[in-house]
């Protein structure tokens, strides 16, 4: 016979909360999780009445729970928000196509408008094609940079004031670990809060689930019967984040509060006041936020378009300078930048779609890349 719920005492407990250790029944767990999310939204002043909020919807558990909760809490507490779903299609066969199907099912059930932007439309490259050029490593570097811009560009096209993402406490703790290991002080400073400050991108972002444990998000989705896609991306096993995740799981096994502690450390971290942070400007090519003459996406795209996919990653400044000055590269230098071996046939271009939504077209514009979008 299960113990009674420690909150209501009436129903048998259905779970022990990973975050607090409390034994709760289904109804009390759902109520506690929803109330904590509401409190995080209120305490962080994440939204203002009348705002249009684009929910980054991947079809996975986090964004599915986030979309469900925001719609429910908006109705329950009268936030006065206009909610939209915004998805990015990276062009990963067998993964994103299936997860987008889950987003579409959610869209039909919830009635929220859905907009999809794709890497092919924005950049002319799908992740599958990038991976064919690049090999198994560093794909997530391209994907992460492109996704950040894609979300911003999609949100701007939709007229959104803010982007809400489904990052949870485990994601934030992993990010703090990764940035610490890389010595990336800029991202350490920006990365751990719930929002609503603008962060790196063009549209302010917030993370309403930033204090929610991943295990509790899975429990919430299970007890609510939410339909989500849970297969891992084919490129994920090569991702650096996987090592941070494994380290975090070990830390959590030894000390269950490690997830919350790391997130807290990220928020509390202070940097020397005389530390110079990169100045925020705009990309000379596409107009996106950049701290260098070209934004990271344009640097990566230049490498891809030149047939030198590693040009934008790693320490290749000397070779970049050579190219900028019009000097030819040696075969060995080209090989280091990932150029195909001599005699290899050039690959066919992927068809570029139109930047559209599931409901209505954005307009029939020929898109060559980020520089072609109004920004
Ligand atoms: Fe993109 Fe890497 Fe995530 Fe796959 S695992 S969706 S390649 S960032
Ligand atoms: Zn750019």
Automatic annotation (TrEMBL):
Pfam families: ATP_bind_3, zn-ribbon_14. One of its GO terms (biological process) is protein urmylation. Residues 281-311 form the Cytoplasmic tRNA 2-thiolation protein 1 C-terminal domain. It comes from Terrapene triunguis. GO terms for cellular component: cytosolic tRNA wobble base thiouridylase complex; mitochondrion. The gene is CTU1. InterPro entries: CTU1-like_ATP-bd, CTU1_C, Ncs6/Tuc1/Ctu1, Rossmann-like_a/b/a_fold, TilS/TtcA_N, tRNA_thiolation_TtcA_Ctu1. Plays a central role in 2-thiolation of mcm(5)S(2)U at tRNA wobble positions of tRNA(Lys), tRNA(Glu) and tRNA(Gln). Directly binds tRNAs and probably acts by catalyzing adenylation of tRNAs, an intermediate required for 2-thiolation. It is unclear whether it acts as a sulfurtransferase that transfers sulfur from thiocarboxylated URM1 onto the uridine of tRNAs at wobble position. This is Cytoplasmic tRNA 2-thiolation protein 1. Its EC number is 2.7.7.-. ATP binds at residues 56-58, 62, 88, 166, 171. It is an enzyme of class 2 (transferase). Residues 349-375 have a biased composition (Basic and acidic residues). It is found in: Cytoplasm. Residues 53-232 form the tRNA(Ile)-lysidine/2-thiocytidine synthase N-terminal domain.
């Amino acid at each position: 016979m299960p113990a009674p719920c420690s909150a209501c005492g009436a129903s048998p407990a259905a779970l022990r909360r990973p975050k607090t250790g409390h034994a709760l029944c289904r109804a009390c767990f759902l109520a506690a999780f929803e109330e904590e999310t509401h409190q995080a939204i209120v305490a962080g002043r994440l939204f203002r009445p009348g705002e249009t909020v684009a929910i980054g919807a991947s079809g996975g558990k986090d964004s599915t729970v986030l979309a469900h909760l925001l719609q429910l809490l908006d109705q329950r507490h009268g936030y006065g928000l206009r909610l939209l779903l915004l998805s990015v299609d990276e062009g990963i066969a067998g993964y994103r196509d299936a997860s987008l199907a889950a987003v579409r099912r959610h869209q039909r059930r919830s009635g929220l408008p859905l907009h999809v932007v794709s890497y092919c439309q924005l950049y002319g490259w799908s992740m599958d094609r990038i991976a064919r050029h690049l090999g198994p490593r560093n794909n997530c570097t391209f994907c992460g940079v492109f996704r950040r811009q894609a979300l911003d560009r999609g949100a701007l096209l939709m007229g959104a004031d803010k982007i809400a993402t489904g990052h949870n406490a485990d994601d934030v703790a992993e990010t703090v670990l990764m940035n610490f290991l890389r010595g990336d002080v800029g991202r350490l400073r920006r990365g751990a809060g719930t929002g609503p400050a603008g962060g790196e991108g063009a549209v302010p972002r917030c993370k309403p689930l930033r204090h929610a444990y991943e295990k509790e998000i899975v429990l919430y989705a299970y007890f609510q019967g939410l339909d989500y896609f849970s297969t891992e991306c084919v490129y994920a096993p090569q991702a650096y984040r996987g090592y941070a995740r494994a380290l975090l799981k070990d830390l959590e096994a030894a000390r269950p509060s490690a997830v919350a502690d790391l997130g807290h450390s990220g928020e509390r971290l202070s940097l020397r006041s005389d530390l110079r942070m990169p100045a925020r400007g705009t990309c000379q090519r596409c107009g996106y936020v950049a701290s260098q003459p070209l934004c990271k996406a344009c640097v990566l795209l230049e490498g891809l378009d030149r047939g030198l996919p590693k040009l934008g990653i790693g320490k290749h400044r000397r070779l970049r300078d050579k190219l900028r000055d019009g000097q030819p590269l040696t075969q060995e230098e080209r090989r280091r930048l990932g150029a195909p071996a001599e005699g290899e046939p050039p690959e066919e271009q992927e068809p570029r779609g139109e930047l559209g939504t599931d409901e209505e077209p954005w307009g029939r514009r020929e898109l060559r890349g980020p520089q072609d979008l109004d920004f």
